[in-house]
Design a protein that fits this description.
Blueprint (H helix, E strand, L loop, with lengths): L15 H13 L13 H7 L5 E7 L13 E6 L1 H21 L3 E8 L5 E8 L5 H19 L1
C-alpha cells in the first residue's frame, strides 16, 4: 500500500467582511491600468469610480463571440460597507427585475482568491445570435442601477 502525499494546505475562505476591509486599499490604489477602457463603457466606469463607495477593477463591454469564447460583458468591482448595503438591498433586486423583463441573465459572483483579488462580478448572458442587443441591454441595466445608487 503506497502512501499518498499530504494534500496542499487550504486557506480559510475569505468573507464579505474581508472584502470590505480590502476595499479601502483598493480604492486608494485605484488607477486605470488597462487602458483604453472599452469605448461603450468608459464614461460609465469613470462616473462609477467617482463614488466613494465603489471601485472598479476589471471590465469588458463584450465582443462578438467566437466558438468556445462568448466574450460576454462583465464588471468586476468592490464596495465599502455602505456600498455593500446599497448593492444587495437596492441595486441587485432592481437590476434583476429589469434583466428578467429584457430576457437577459445576469450572473452575480462574489469572488476572492489567494492573491488578494477580492470583489463582485456581474456577467451578462444572452443568446449568441443576439450578442449586440444583449450586451447593450446588459450595460443599460447595470449602469442605470449602479449610477442611481452609487
Amino acid at each position: 500500500m503506497s502512501s499518498s502525499p499530504n494534500p496542499p494546505e487550504r486557506r480559510a475562505p475569505r468573507t464579505i467582511d474581508h472584502m470590505i476591509a480590502e476595499f479601502k486599499k483598493q480604492k486608494a490604489e485605484f488607477k486605470i491600468n488597462h487602458a483604453p477602457i472599452d469605448p461603450m463603457i468608459e464614461a460609465f466606469c469613470m462616473d462609477l469610480n467617482k463614488s466613494p463607495d465603489i471601485v472598479t477593477m476589471f471590465s469588458c463591454e463584450g465582443h462578438k463571440p467566437v466558438p468556445d469564447d462568448p466574450n460576454n460583458p462583465y464588471l468586476f468591482f468592490n464596495v465599502s460597507q455602505e456600498g455593500m448595503m446599497k448593492l444587495w438591498n437596492f441595486v441587485i433586486p432592481n437590476m434583476l427585475m429589469d434583466a428578467s423583463a429584457a430576457n437577459l441573465f445576469i450572473h452575480i459572483e462574489v469572488y476572492s482568491d489567494e492573491i488578494g483579488t477580492n470583489g463582485i462580478v456581474f456577467r451578462g448572458y444572452y443568446p449568441p445570435e443576439q450578442w449586440e442587443k444583449g450586451k447593450q441591454a446588459f450595460w443599460h441595466i447595470v449602469s442605470k442601477h449602479m449610477l442611481k445608487f452609487f
